[in-house]
Specification:
By secondary structure, the chain is an alpha/beta fold. The protein is built from 16 helices and 13 strands.
Length: 401
């Protein structure tokens, strides 16, 4: 339940552009269409379809996505070139279309990547934004690439030129992931002070230091209206701000931040699973929200607490995200989990018999060897049945949930 004064944060999903352009993440146009519809169903405000001028595949994906989305806006990525913008409009039309163009925002990029001056970079923005507006595009974003290594004068020139030419959104890209939260918050605050309240300010953070989420949150606190995210945090190098982590924090900590999103938490894991299958991405063990064992434990002390009350070790609840709790048996599991299983099976054993089971099934496991609690439960039921240990009728079928 959100507080009445809570600010709704816009979610711009770039899974299909920044996420897809990273190594081994390529998708076909039909796969991108499927993911776009899934992301729309999650409640994203905008889905970035791709970079139409980069390839026939991205052009086709944009064409398909632009015709299929019904609840959210779609975006395209362009350089500050008329031909890129023309191709984006040819692929997706003008209706419900956010044209996002990238401005060169640092001297190192101007010198070594573009070979142009600051004045030329600013002029490009003016020409490109004016051209997009003339084509009938009403949602025009200018993303300042490498803004985190820019300086105030260049940033101000690019920002003010973009807005005066007709841009409706300024995106600040921490392209190399070099900033820490205080620095990024200060960057957003400066831009926010330079543009009217009607201009949307968006974050685009990379995870090279593992700070993409922290930086995005700092940006929101400093006045940003929108966060660019990817499902599972996929993207260039270490990735982008993960959609699931942003949505989780702004759900559980909504009162603290005074902000929320409209993302459907319970459907994200299903969408992520579909994405992993498309790009053959292995599920990580320890990733927040989506990790194999994000809601699992093998430690005896934790298991003892969870068996008594899951809140002892679960602040983030698995069911909220369409996940299940998993209690696993390994050599760090204690006697409490074994006693719980025996009680569940209705077995009455002596301490000596329990010690024997503990030694054989838990203590003597190899360091990395662990298995689901249900597997051990079945093994114990068979073993105790062969030994004719009294078992109470009505065994419980599941111990996770």
């Amino acid at each position: 339940m959100q507080h009445q004064s809570s600010k709704r944060v816009r979610v711009f999903d770039t899974t299909l552009r920044d996420g897809e352009q990273a190594p081994a993440n390529g998708m076909t146009p039909d796969q991108k269409l499927e993911m776009a519809l899934r992301i729309e169903a999650l409640g994203a405000d905008c889905v970035e379809a791709g970079f139409p001028a980069s390839s026939p595949s991205d052009f086709e994906a944009t064409r398909k996505i632009s015709r299929a989305l019904t609840k959210c806006r779609f975006a395209t990525f362009s350089r500050t070139r008329r031909e890129d913008i023309d191709l984006a409009v040819e692929a997706g039309g003008t209706e419900n279309h956010e044209v996002q163009m990238v401005a060169t925002g640092s001297d190192i990029h101007l010198k070594y990547k573009r070979g142009i001056s600051r004045a030329e970079a600013v002029s490009e923005v003016s020409t490109a934004v004016t051209h997009a507006a003339a084509l009938g595009i009403t949602h025009i974003s200018v993303g300042i690439e490498d803004a985190s290594r820019s300086d105030d004068q260049l940033l101000k020139d690019l920002t003010e030129t973009a807005v005066s030419s007709g841009a409706t959104c300024i995106i600040l890209a921490d392209t190399t992931g070099c900033m820490v939260p205080q620095e990024y918050g200060e960057l957003i605050s400066k831009i926010r002070s330079w543009v009217p309240d009607t201009i949307r300010v968006s974050t685009h953070c990379h995870d090279d230091f593992g700070l993409s989420l922290a930086n995005a949150l700092a940006g929101l606190e400093a006045g940003a209206d929108e966060v660019q995210v990817t499902l599972g945090g996929i993207g260039e190098r270490a990735g982008n701000t993960p959609l699931e982590e942003l949505a989780a924090v702004l759900s559980y900590k909504s009162n603290f931040y005074g902000m929320h999103t409209d993302i459907r938490l319970d459907s994200m894991y299903e969408a992520y699973t579909a994405l992993r299958k498309m790009i053959t991405l292995a599920e990580p063990r320890n990733k927040p929200i989506f990790g194999t064992y994000a809601f699992g434990t093998v430690a005896g002390i934790h298991q003892q607490g969870i068996l008594s009350n899951p809140a002892t070790y679960e602040y983030v609840e698995p069911a909220v995200f369409g996940r299940e709790r998993s209690l696993l048996i390994g050599r760090h599991s204690g006697r409490s989990i074994l006693r719980h299983l025996l009680e569940d099976l209705g077995a009455r054993l002596t301490e000596t018999e329990i010690d024997d089971l503990y030694r054989r099934h838990i203590a003597e496991r190899r360091g990395s060897d662990c298995e689901d609690l249900r597997v051990l439960r079945q093994q114990l039921a068979l073993e105790l049945g062969r030994r004719e240990v009294h078992l109470v009728p009505g065994l419980k079928p599941e111990l996770t949930g």
